Amino acid sequence: MLDLVKPFQAILPEIVVPARKLPFYDKIAYTVGIAITFFIMAGIPLYGAHASTSDPYSFTRAISASSHGTLMELGVGPMVTSGIIFQILGGFQALNVNFDIRADRELFQSGQKIFALLLTFFHAIFLVFFAQTYGTISTDSAVSELSLGAAVLIVAQLTAAGLVLILLGEIVDKGYSFGSGSGLFTALSVSQNFMWQNLALLKVHQEFVGSIPALLMGLWKNGLFNFGGSYRYVIENSFFRQNLPNLLQLYMSVAVFMLTIYLNTFRVDIPIKSSRVRSLATAFPVKLLYTGSMCLFLLSAFSQNVLIYSQSLYVQFPDNLMVQVLGSWGADGSPVGGIAYYISPNNFGYDVIKMVLYSVYTIVGCTLFSKYWAEISGSAPKDVAKQFQAQSIVIVGQRAQSAPRELAKVIPVAAAVGGAVVGAIVAFCDIFGGLGASAAPMIVAVTSMNNYFEILAQEGDIAQMGKAFGM
To answer: What are the structural domains, with CATH classification, of the chain?
Structure first.
């Protein structure tokens, strides 16, 4: 299958791996440049589009690093989906690739990049022509909101932006920055959303969007700073106001932040030592959050794909029974029935059935994705045992041949339980805290920061980071 990629390698844009390890400050410069480019693209609206105020994909925006009605409409969704599919195919040896051979690795990466670009193109077509997200397309000029030329232009903009994002991600992945491209974009998106929800000074219906400015303005108007006035309404509105960020969501986000940091400390230490030289035993840590937030990336990408195709099919075939089972959509562009309704954390109200089904979907989905990602991503017990063998490491008190069996007692359990815990936190916050208090973006942000610190520690850049910040 990968042989089909070879003819395109010559014309496919590619980022060259740096000849040497870049200094810390050079990586900082690249990271800042990438972040600025990302924020600019996330702020440029699609030319010719009539974006609606309704956004059925709002709950995936932070994790997918996407922004409604802008060049970043699709975000890292196609990149993550492509990575998942190729990782699964490679893990189950459906692709004939040897990762120890450089040519095979480059071919695999080129195929993943091409597939991500194709997914971007097809997602753009579905959103524009099938779901008609940016305006109705019709042969009747009295009904049509979007001309064919404008529709084609929007698809071209989304595809070009997707290619730029793929190349920016490749710059990060090739060692010019820290961590992974998708992780960096998601961390930037989560940080931006958090700042916007709590500090934005934009006014909507005479209220500040940001929860903290809204509280301060309410206190000022009610005369509390002059030791008078009634504050009960101000406090209640600040904590429970609808359709705008509130303080309850802020406090829940902070609680999730602290809880995730605490959960990152849970681990099982497996004692190991070198079989070559006599040395003291050290520990191989298996964390509770063994796969980090990857299960949320996978679940978000899966949900986003289901919603895109469900909405696209329903607009074209609203009376088809199978399409209605996949999802029914209201006039405001939000799911009102079917699978799409039950997997999106919107409009719970008092719908107990949706609460239960959404909780089951989130918890089971995170559990399965976390468990199977550990198996196909090179983190399975047999893969870790091979790394031990290559480095002449043995588990204390065990023979080298028993390493896979001993690791299998811990790693799958940690992956599954960690995924279930993450899913339970996300489901609880989505149901009882409102969409703005979704725990998923905050968990992703914390695990991404933790990964960055681990990378900096491994590369010996912690001291330089301290000097950069005057510490």
So the answer is: 1-200 (1.10.3370.10), 201-244 (no CATH), 257-471 (1.10.3370.10)
